[in-house]
Amino acid sequence: MTDQGDIALQPDDVVPENQDRIGFIEAFKVREIRALAVSRGASRLAMSTVSYGTMVYLATQGGTQLQISFVAAATYLASVLFGVQGGMLADTISKRMAIAGGYVAIAVMYLILPLFAGKSITSLLLVMFLSAAVMQVVSPSLKSAVALVSKPKDVAVVATSVTIASSIAASVGSSVLAPVLIKTVGLVPLMYLAAVIMLYGAWATLRLPKTEIGEKLSAAVKQIGFREHMFSLRRTATWFNGNRNTGALILVGAIAVSMYEAFTTLIPVYVRDVLGSDPTNAVYIFAPAGIGFLIGMYFTPMLIDLIGARKLAVLSVFIMSISMVLFGIIEHIAPYVAPFSPLQVLGWAFDVQIPKVVLAASAIALPANFGSTAAGSAIVAYINQRVPLAQQGATFGLQEVQENVATLILVMTLGAASGIVGPKAVFIVSPLAAFAMMAWLIVYSYRVTGQDKITMRAALDELVDTSVDE
């Protein structure tokens, strides 16, 4: 990837103060924006259902945390191997066709692989890896498509609208569809339903603008040079030093994503071993998180305007970090947090006795998911506003790589540690581990580019510096 300096807003891109931005309701009335939201939402719904469904399935079959972590890690490994190339490919071919074609390919995998490979660990690893490999082209195409369907002044609202809608869809997949389907019909019917949802997403994608004329896929693949763009820690560190402001924000996003994915991976065993409940009852923890997404949908664009995308991303990561620690000390805080759970209404309405630890966990999930969603929306809006469209695919591809490298390391490390010290201790140390990884990368970037050495404390300060760009 060619090194680029940080790209500031050009005069033509500055939004006049007297111009009103589009609102959420108005945004979803626009055909192209609605199509993008449905498209991205369908993919997140299908993939979160399959991903979390496989983890719940393994937990109900008595699988260990390490086995569950291996299945989840297959997804992140695909991004590490192909994320940069996928982003570059997304910049070359038509984003509309890249998204639709990717969805169809993944749907075929969901339909065929379980039929021939069964439900073994190997089969699940293969499904996770191959579908994630295809998403390395689809995901940056989806994020870049925001700039295709919105005016420059509306990018923040549109990006947030699409992100929040897709996050709600992902939450429904992991919190409702996955546990309910695993409990009632099993894993294979779940994957068939996911295939249908993915095909619906492909149909919605065809309603996006046909303004792009990309190269043919075969020609684009030949130009990429997959081997020379394989993940390299040294090249990543060099790129970071050439794009310090954008790079630091991408690392903040990597913290948010890695913590959230580690949380999702740990929850089935956490529910089983810590909360003493059936792993399929994780629905009680994830369901209230939808409130956090709705809060994010309403307030994130306002917060971006008020404090800036960078400050919002950093603040959101700290909210997530506090939430993770609270999961680790759930038994001590349950009496104080449980009364704030939205599930209290369920208990009053149906006279259901829900344990306080479950109520407390459901309450904590709300700010955790708000933090994850707000951080993602802020970073997408930042890149959409400050990076030229021709470079956004590659930038988002690099973002995918950073997030998945961090997630791969964190999920496998915490998965192994959970078997030794238990999931509660792992939740407590997860924020420290995530911040330490990103700070170390900044230290490493100084070293490989021949700059003066920087301490871990200084690297942390640079990571959460909110005084630039805004």
Itemize the secondary structure elements and their pairings.
Blueprint: H1 24-29, H2 31-60, H3 65-92, H4 95-117, H5 121-144, H6 146-149, H7 155-184, H8 187-205, H9 217-224, H10 233-242, H11 244-273, H12 283-286, H13 289-307, H14 309-328, H15 330-337, H16 344-350, H17 356-386, H18 389-421, H19 423-448, H20 456-463
Folded structure, characterized:
The chain has one domain (24-206, 231-463): Up-down Bundle (Growth Hormone, Chain: A), CATH 1.20.1250. It has helices at 24-29, 31-60, 65-92, 95-117, 121-144, 146-149, 155-184, 187-205, 217-224, 233-242, 244-273, 283-286, 289-307, 309-328, 330-337, 344-350, 356-386, 389-421, 423-448, 456-463. Residues 1-19 have low confidence and may be disordered. It is globular, with a radius of gyration of 21 Å. By secondary structure, the chain is mainly α.
